[in-house]
Amino acid sequence: MAKALDEYTRKRNFTATPEPSGARKSRRRNAADVGETLQFCIQKHDASHLHYDFRLELNGALKSWAIPKGPCLDPKVRRLAVHVEDHPIDYATFEGHIPEGHYGAGDVIVWDRGIWTPQGDPNEGYEKGKLKFALDGEKLSGAWNLVRTKMAGKKEQWFLIKSKDAAARPEADYDVLEDKPDSVLSERTLTPRARGKSRKADVDTSTPVKAPARRRSKRGEPTALEGAKKAKLPETFAPQLATLVESAPEGDWRYEIKFDGYRILARIRNGEVRLFTRNGHDWTDKMPRQAEAIAALGLTEGWLDGEVVVADEEGLPDFQALQNAFEANRSERILYYLFDAPYLNGMDLRRVSLEQRRTALAEVLNANDSALLRYSDDFAEDAQSMLTSACQMKLEGLIGKRAGSAYTSRRSSSWIKIKCQNRQEFVVVGYTEPKGARSGFGALLLALHDDDSGELLYAGKVGTGFNEDTLKTLLQQLKPLETARAPLSNPPKGAEARGVHWLKPELLCEVAFAQMTREGIVRHSVFHGLRDDKPAKRIGKEAPKRADSVAAEDARGKSAASKSNAQKGPRATDVEGIRISHPDRVIDKTSGGTKLDIARYYAEMAPWMSPEMSKRPVALVRAPDGIEGELFFQKHADRRAMPHVGQVKDVSEPKPLFLVDNAKALVGAAQMGVVEVHGWNATVPKLDKPDRFVLDLDPDPALPWKHMIEATQLTLTLLDELGLRAYIKTSGGKGMHIVVPLSRRQEWDAVKDFTKAIAQHMADVMPARFSAVSGPKNRVGKIFIDYLRNGRGATSVAAYSVRAREGLPVSVPIYRDELEDLKGANQWTVRNVAERLAALGDDDPWAEMGSVKQTITVKMRKQLGMR
Prior knowledge:
The chain has 867 residues and is of the alpha+beta class. The strands form 9 sheets. An 8-stranded antiparallel β-barrel has the order 1-2-3-4-9-8-7-6. Strands 10, 13, 14, 15, 16, 17 and 18 form a 7-stranded mixed beta sheet that branches. Helix 11 runs antiparallel to helix 12. It is globular and about 85 Å long. The two termini are 52 Å apart. Pfam families: DNA_ligase_A_C, DNA_ligase_A_M, LigD_N, LigD_Prim-Pol.
């Protein structure tokens, strides 16, 4: 393989590009070996021109072709494929930004990946220039052909051609590139860089600005809801959130006005309406008239998504007026603009296209005669001219939604926001005394959390945007929060700090500003109001993404953050009162994650981890030299005591076991180099009988992720048929974990035998998909249902535990209805899991697990064929 990668290596400087060097050991497999699975990937690459890189694993490397127009599902279409140099196997998961001046400079995402199955001898077919194969990916499937042509050129010219089968579709009817543009590994999208004449040059600013033309909603037409499915209405629901971008991307997007208000979701169940904030707080009592108007629509059940605003004298949204309306209980002034319907009358519409969901919503509102409910129209003008109009009308900006997109309950690249000015939330950490004729207070002191360390950092002041009423009202809210010390890691000094009343960091305000200095201080700021629909915790700087920098963050790594921290001064190394030695020791080079980062993460996650870990013995994975060094799996306590880590004895174990069930214990373990926490399936004092069993779905790494989703759903279906309630979480690695709580009645061997029967049943019924035998050779092209974690003393990774893998992913509990939207088992990391929890608010996918009372019955055993 070294010779195969010579050209790849010669073209790249691995000290400057984030691309893998190929030095890491990879699977060396002969493609002709019977039973081996081979992976493929297609990377979307915005280099000198946008193209797609098609790569097939063969003989320990990725054979690669650049396809200018990308793959097509129409067998009549031949897509040019230019043969390029081989790439290393680990390139199949590479996403990032290749810096300017380097070979292939531009953004890269993994557009598709999975396994490929050659028809005949692949080496012979490759040499002859006629490769026939089947793809099983997230997006592409069925039979395909790569055929070498005799066209002249510096590089070999091939054609990629789809074969006629069930997966083929005419090009005139369907374009998979437009329908599914994003990464299959992450939340990344790739917006092609603008080339040629700028759109801005086409905007005529000399003519008077007119209101944008409204796009017809076709409310009277019947709606064919392709992708809708019957579903039980969820009790709670998280909204889709938009990603801030600098400018409008290319492509087919629908643009709406960005309202200056509060995001509100309406739940209709049995005709009863409840109104919730984006974090799940019930605000129905604050908006009784709006709830009555929703009830009058006549829906039996559903979830509707929208924004509430109050208009000023010119008819424009006024955030301060909205707050005043809430404070004065004047809900009759509040307008509820609705823009989506993810659930409607017994149907789950999240997989229905954006246009069809909105048409269905428009039809519901068509008969509405309430002055309080409005349909949020989208507009027909191009984004740039519409943004110009919106800004000149002093609106906040635009919300863009990709045409044809599904509804996803998280921040997504298929919804974007473009703002007219810098404006975001800040944490209020203090206020100054008023001067002159000013009453109440002089200015509010602002702060933001650092994205890397989580520290609360000073961000300047805001002293304008208040009137006499707001000064008086705000002061009443500020005084109860006064505290003696500044809640900042870098409080202002000298005259700027003199006479400041410091506050507990609990209030959140929205501020517009002209710019932010390199030191993170806002200039020319204007107060727009307090917010109580979002938590103040972890609010940081909201930075817009550019088309040429969406994927660049990984490439830049930790260097910029480290430099920034150096400018701010030394980092605090005490966490939960425990001194962290060597805090800047890098644990994961790919993300720059340090020992201190892990300690702080576990301190923050303690409220979520402690309930599960209470009195539960654990085993610990230590990485004293980082995850690339030697890892130590430690099950028993030794002479080197870990700070605050408890111990418990068990008759079956020669030495004491660990207990890590509170914040200090978790941080103490991190201080000793612990990265992973693995729990028993029992708790003290009843270690002789398990309180749960765990099924670890462990896939062949080459399988596409959709197989894991399907396998999890199938296993859950079996457990449902057995009558067992089950809960799921990502493993933080490649697979999924299914956790089944039990009453403490059965012995260990009985529970383990039962889980083995589950695994064997799935393997017997679907032998092409599942294996009940451990070992890589037995799960080739399959998913191993690992039941071996259910013996006495065996462990499985704990919920919210970090994994000792690249990027420091985390094992995260999820709701069942979130499964289909997962990108992978490593979707959440120590960097972004806090955002996940903030979006959940008070919800917890495992909240009811502790109250479940169930046991393995004789009937269940018979259903699995057990004696």
